[in-house]
Amino acid sequence: MYRDFYRIEVNDLIILEAKGKITEANNKTNLIHRFDVPEGVNKLVIKYSYSPRILEDREKAVRLVKECYEKYGEKIIGRPSDDLPVKNLVTLSVDENGAYRGAAHRHADRQEHIIGKDFASPGFLKGEIHQGEWDIVLNVHSVSCDVDYQITVEGDEE
Question: CB under 8 Å to 124, separation ≥6 — which residues?
């Protein structure tokens, strides 16, 4: 199971806290974290981080580079180690009541995003925050080792 902790608290405006481990078995999948936004929230602040960003096992990294070249029929020019480091990439997108609200397909391993009526971080749609069921979807583009992640969603009430 990729999620080992999940909490929703509305009283202190922490709407979601989730953390877990993504394994290589989760590679190229989407992991959904569903949460309810209460009435009266006018802004969401999403804090997201994962680690490690880089595969530290050099031997494994070189092997993975070689496997990629073989899989895609590319000739290796130079040494496979020239294509290091091998990076993990896990991005996020947000849906509001089943409708797309935006995505942050960025390479940073620590991110903070705001979604509100008058402002939204690049990649997200600004507008009213509606009560109901929201999803944060972790888009697992590439993981080459176990990756720990943490998501916190804070709400700002009117």
Answer: 94, 101, 102, 103, 104, 113, 114, 115
One-letter amino acid of 41: V
Looking at residue 76, its amino acid is I
Residues in contact with 149: Cβ distance below 8 Å, sequence separation at least 6, in sequence order: 19, 20, 21, 22, 48, 49, 50, 90, 138
Q: How far is Cα 25 from Cα 19, in angstroms, rounded to an integer?
A: 17
> What's the pLDDT score for residue 158?
65
Give the per-residue pLDDT at 150.
98
* Paired sense of beta strands 147-157 and 99-104, if any: unpaired
> Distance of alpha carbon 150 from its chain centroid, rounded?
9
pLDDT of residue 77: 72
